[in-house]
Amino acid sequence: MKKIRFSMIAMAFIFAIGASAFKAPFLSESKALVLDQQWFEYESGPKSSPSSYNFIDVTEPDEELCSGGEEVCAIKVLADGSSPNFTPNQTALNNMQTAIQTAENAEQSSPNDGVYVRPE
Length: 120
Description:
- The chain is of the alpha+beta class and 120 residues long.
- The chain has two domains: 33 residues; 83 residues, no CATH class.
- It is built from three helices and five strands; from the N terminus they run αββββααβ.
- Strands 1, 2, 3, 4 and 5 form a five-stranded antiparallel sheet that branches.
- β3 and β4 form a beta hairpin.
- It is elongated.
- About 10% of the residues have low confidence.
């Protein structure tokens, strides 16, 4: 009887370890998605506020997207959330304010900094 009880406990322990081993990779995949940089179109409001931007599913902004309106068109920044409900990460957005201001002052896009401005 003791052998059966010990075997059952050992099987339960092995099953628990196996189940946790299969669960871990799925958690790390979802975290990796959150850390990806995404493009956001500037709509209106403070440029340091995530709510001023809308997620856009593009490789790079084009002339059609970046025509008319505000000087800043789109930014590429770390995203929070999951597609299609991404929002700019607040810390990353705060760190990008200098690049946004520099691109606006120069009236020139800065793709290396992830900032596109609308042409005049």
